[in-house]
């Protein structure tokens, strides 16, 4: 459903036409029109569609699925063309294999005619037409710039991030320490601030920070990068693999940055990323204001007069960088482990797979695109964070006993049981008292409520209202004996020859 959601976002959030949206996500404009009609019939907006679970969205968009549609039995021409490059493979052989999969497919004559037309299209080169404010191309330069640690002398090679507007060729460049997702997204945030506006589309290369799984037809966008696109309300359209013409603009921009910025800095030594970016920014202004050779104006003037007015304003609030983790396993104890710390989820999600969104302070868990748990992020390795609402009722009663509930239970048995429970609840450590009370409850399963009340009465009389004493009384059937009327008092010690007086301990030898 990822492609369907992206198509709906382009139609109902960005307001693109059926043909524009269909072209961006590589589907027919008829499919885009059908989706639009289905959504309009239900009178839904983008907010409702975005919050809709996958199952509900699939039921809305595909109320009836029919087998054998034209798109399913259409031959896979790229695969057929690739197979034709292999020795001994013929068209009629491939047609027989095709008909084995789709008996009602096209005839051999139609098969060969369509393949001939496909081959004729392979050699064509399409001239790209860029609309104002529509596309922004982003990539990294192949060249790096060394940064020297002034203390240790170690050298780190800084990456150069480059962005180029499609129509005006207005360029942005900066140095980062890595190409990883934190630097990649932070470069985009600073790039948008530099532009002062947001284009309709971003065309990145297929690096891991942008694309989790490259595919010519349905690439999987990195979750953090997709979240950035949602924040800025921009479409992400990765360039196709091994198709340099898809990103010819940024390739040209890379060469210009290398020629007019990096080459001019080649003899300078930089000791920090800040000083390097300051030097790049100064030369970047010169590059964008350099007059064109074959047309009037410069990159900056064309950007301000053409691109800027067609772009969207920046969002009101700042983008918060978040890391996404996918396919997290929820254990039998309904906890998922992130960075060596266990966080609870609703107990019915045990054994399921969930996604986690991590910020500097908060961690959120999602199941089927619905947020199911939110915790404050913890740095305690080996620890656990558990919410009571995530626990089943039995676990809640065990982990968090209720004082009033224990006293109500004791009152049903008798006043002696109440006395013992009250004594346990007044202990210095309440948790130990709760556990002793739960131990008393367990004794009723073996000895019954009547005997437990009698044992508690005897324990109070002998001034030993502990769980151990009550268990011993029941085990030895002392609760069935008459209660002692008085507690024996200590008798004075009888004086005889073997008893030493206190004088003995003070050195009096006569004792």
From TrEMBL:
Family matches, as PANTHER family: TRANSPOSASE RV3428C-RELATED
Superkingdom, taxonomy of origin: Bacteria
Similarity section: Belongs to the transposase IS21/IS408/IS1162 family.
Residue span, HTH IS408-type domain: 4-84
Protein name as annotated: Transposase
GO molecular function, one term: nucleic acid binding
A biological-process GO annotation: DNA integration
Start and end residues of each Integrase catalytic domain: 127-321
Xref: Pfam families: Mu-transpos_C_2
Membrane-crossing residue ranges in chain numbering: none
SUPFAM superfamilies given in the database record: Ribonuclease H-like
């Amino acid at each position: 459903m990822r492609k369907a959601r992206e198509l709906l976002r382009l139609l109902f959030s960005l307001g693109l036409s059926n043909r524009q949206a269909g072209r961006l996500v590589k589907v027919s404009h008829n499919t885009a029109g059908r989706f639009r009609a289905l959504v309009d019939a239900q009178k839904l907006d983008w907010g409702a569609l975005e919050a809709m679970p996958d199952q509900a969205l699939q039921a809305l968009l595909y109320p009836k699925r029919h087998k054998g549609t034209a798109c399913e039995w259409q031959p896979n021409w790229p695969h057929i063309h690739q197979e034709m490059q292999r020795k001994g493979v013929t068209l009629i052989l491939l047609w027989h294999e095709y008909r084995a999969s789709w008996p009602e497919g096209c005839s051999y004559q139609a098969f060969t005619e369509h393949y001939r037309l496909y081959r004729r299209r392979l050699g064509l080169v399409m001239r790209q037409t860029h609309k104002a404010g529509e596309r922004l191309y982003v990539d990294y330069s192949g060249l790096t710039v060394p940064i020297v640690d002034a203390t240790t002398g170690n050298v780190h090679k800084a990456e150069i991030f480059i962005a180029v507007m499609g129509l005006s060729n207005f360029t942005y460049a900066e140095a980062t320490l890595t190409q990883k997702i934190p630097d990649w997204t932070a470069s985009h945030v600073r790039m948008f601030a530099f532009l002062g506006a947001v284009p309709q589309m971003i065309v990145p290369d297929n690096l891991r920070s942008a694309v989790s799984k490259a595919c010519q037809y349905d690439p999987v966008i990195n979750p953090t990068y997709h979240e950035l696109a949602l924040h800025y309300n921009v479409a992400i359209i990765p360039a196709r693999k091994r198709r340099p013409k898809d990103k010819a603009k940024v390739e040209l921009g890379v060469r210009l940055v290398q020629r007019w910025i990096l080459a001019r800095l080649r003899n300078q030594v930089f000791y920090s990323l800040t000083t390097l970016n300051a030097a790049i920014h100064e030369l970047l202004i010169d590059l964008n204001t350099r007059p064109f050779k074959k047309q009037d104006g410069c990159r900056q003037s064309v950007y301000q007069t053409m691109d800027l007015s067609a772009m969207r304003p920046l969002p009101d609030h700042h983008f918060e960088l978040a890391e996404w983790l996918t396919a997290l396993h929820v254990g039998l104890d309904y906890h998922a482990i992130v960075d060596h710390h266990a966080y609870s989820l609703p107990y019915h999600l045990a054994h399921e797979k969930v996604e986690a969104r991590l910020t500097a302070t908060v961690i959120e868990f999602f199941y089927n695109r619905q947020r199911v748990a939110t915790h404050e992020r913890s740095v305690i390795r080996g620890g656990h964070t558990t919410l009571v609402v995530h626990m089943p009722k039995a676990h809640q009663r065990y982990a968090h006993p209720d004082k009033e509930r224990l006293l109500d239970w004791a009152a049903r048995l008798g006043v002696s049981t109440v006395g013992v429970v009250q004594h346990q609840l007044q202990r210095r450590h309440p948790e130990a008292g709760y556990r002793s009370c739960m131990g008393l409850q367990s004794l009723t399963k073996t000895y019954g409520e009547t005997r437990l009340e009698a044992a508690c009465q005897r324990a109070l009389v002998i001034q030993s209202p502990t769980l151990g004493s009550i268990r011993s009384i029941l085990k030895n059937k002392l609760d069935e004996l008459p209660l002692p009327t008085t507690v024996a008092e200590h008798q004075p010690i009888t004086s005889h020859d073997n008893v030493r007086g206190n004088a003995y301990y003070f050195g009096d030898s006569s004792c």
